[in-house]
């Protein structure tokens, strides 16, 4: 549940959120709307996007839906240009859409690799490129890429997603440097395990797998989409995070540090 933000920090601004029909993307869209902004949510299925838009409109701003596969660069460009045409500006892009499943690398088909890399890495670039053309012309904008900590530490069974998220991290840092002097900030947010429509069934389908994932989080619980959305709002807000670019904010209860944590009870953690 997201309350109206007393900061009203996005009043008069417009955000495009990919994968805004579920999970973390929906929570980010609602948090942006709660901050007074207008939102456009993009994904392949219309119905969940419309549900997000209905929820966002309750905060009083405008909410639009675009059906589009981020793997299609022409469709992405048309979608982004349509947002600017309809709403007059584009202040924020959140590259949140993703595909994922667990597979042994040696058994992953080329098409399985391609599906995930195309959605996560190529799709993020297509959206970023199209959005940046407007943001650079306006001299302002914020791009937020949703990644995962295996982008830097790796994780067995996720070679496609880890490689793609690692590419998104490198893209983030490159573009932050390239566009830093032109008013466009580019950052990443890295959620911990979060129970969403896509993640639970794909990544921890059994109680045993779920317990194992939970056991890897020092905070001892799953991340909530709202927690990710609150940190996303901070990074998107130029008044609070205007000097932050090229960085990664982990919202994961310390999960990525997990392997480095000494688990002996004498060290205060078991
Ligand atoms: C372990 C703990 C880690 C915790 C951190 C987690 C960090 C990250 C989390 C997330 O990213 S959660 C988000 C998950 N959300 C989704 O995945 C939703 C969207 N997903 C999809 O659209 C599909 O899953 C998709 C496969 C990624 C893409 O769908 P599309 O319809 O385009 O592809 P398909 O035609 O169905 O398949 C393409 C290709 O991929 C092969 N494949 C699909 N699923 C599997 C699987 N479970 N195992 C192995 N291979 C799979 C499929 O067979 C196709 O290949 P070919 O058969 O044609 O060779
Ligand atoms: N949940 C977790 O534990 C974690 C998630 N993350 C990251 O957070 C982000 C959100 O994850 P989460 O909310 O769990 O995922 P969900 O699966 O719930 O949401 C993914 C969204 O992406 C959309 N999407 C997928 N493929 C495409 C495509 N080709 N074109 C357009 N939209 C697409 C889906 O909509 P549709 O199917 O209608 O297209 C869906 O709304 C992802 O980047 C994920 O990698 C990172 C770490 C942990």
Automatic annotation (TrEMBL):
Record GO terms (molecular function): trans-2-enoyl-CoA reductase (NADPH) activity
Stretch forming the signal peptide: none
UniProt cross-references to Pfam families, sorted A to Z: adh_short_C2
InterPro entries: KR_dom, NAD(P)-bd_dom_sf, Peroxisomal_t2-enoyl-CoA_red, SDR_fam
Catalysis: reaction(s): (2E)-octenoyl-CoA + NADPH + H(+) = octanoyl-CoA + NADP(+); (2E)-hexenoyl-CoA + NADPH + H(+) = hexanoyl-CoA + NADP(+); (2E)-dodecenoyl-CoA + NADPH + H(+) = dodecanoyl-CoA + NADP(+); (2E)-decenoyl-CoA + NADPH + H(+) = decanoyl-CoA + NADP(+)
The Ketoreductase domain, residue ranges: 13-171
Gene3D superfamilies referenced in this protein's UniProt entry, alphabetically: NAD(P)-binding Rossmann-like Domain
Pathway in which this enzyme or protein is active: Lipid metabolism
One GO term (biological process): fatty acid biosynthetic process
Enzyme Commission numbers on file: 1.3.1.38
Complexes and interactors: Interacts with PEX5, probably required to target it into peroxisomes.
PANTHER family per UniProt: PEROXISOMAL TRANS-2-ENOYL-COA REDUCTASE (PTHR24317:SF7)
Name recorded for this polypeptide: Peroxisomal trans-2-enoyl-CoA reductase
UniProt source species: Blastococcus mobilis
């Amino acid at each position: 549940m997201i309350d109206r933000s007393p900061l009203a920090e996005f009043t008069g601004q417009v955000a495009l959120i990919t994968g805004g029909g579920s999970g973390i993307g929906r929570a980010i869209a609602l948090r942006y709307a709660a901050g007074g902004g207008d939102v456009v949510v993009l994904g392949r299925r219309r119905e969940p996007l419309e549900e997000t838009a209905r929820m966002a409109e309750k905060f009083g701003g405008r909410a639009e839906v675009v059906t589009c596969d981020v793997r299609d660069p022409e469709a992405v460009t048309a979608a982004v240009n349509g947002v600017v045409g309809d709403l007059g500006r584009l202040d924020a892009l959140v590259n949140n859409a993703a595909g994922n499943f667990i597979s042994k690398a040696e058994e992953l088909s080329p098409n399985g690799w391609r599906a995930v890399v195309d959605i996560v890495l190529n799709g993020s670039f297509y959206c970023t490129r199209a959005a940046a053309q407007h943001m650079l012309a306006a001299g302002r904008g914020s791009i937020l890429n949703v990644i995962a900590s295996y982008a830097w530490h790796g994780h067995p069974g996720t070679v496609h997603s880890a490689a793609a998220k690692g590419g998104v991290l490198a893209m983030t840092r490159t573009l932050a440097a390239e566009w830093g002097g032109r008013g466009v900030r580019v950052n990443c947010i890295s959620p911990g395990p979060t129970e969403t429509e896509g993640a639970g069934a794909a990544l921890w389908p059994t109680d045993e797998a779920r317990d194992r994932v939970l056991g890897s989080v020092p905070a001892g619980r799953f991340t909530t989409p709202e927690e990710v959305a609150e940190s996303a709002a901070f990074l998107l807000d130029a008044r609070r995070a205007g000097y932050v670019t090229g960085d990664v904010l982990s919202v994961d209860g310390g999960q990525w540090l997990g392997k480095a944590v000494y688990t002996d009870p004498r060290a205060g953690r078991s």
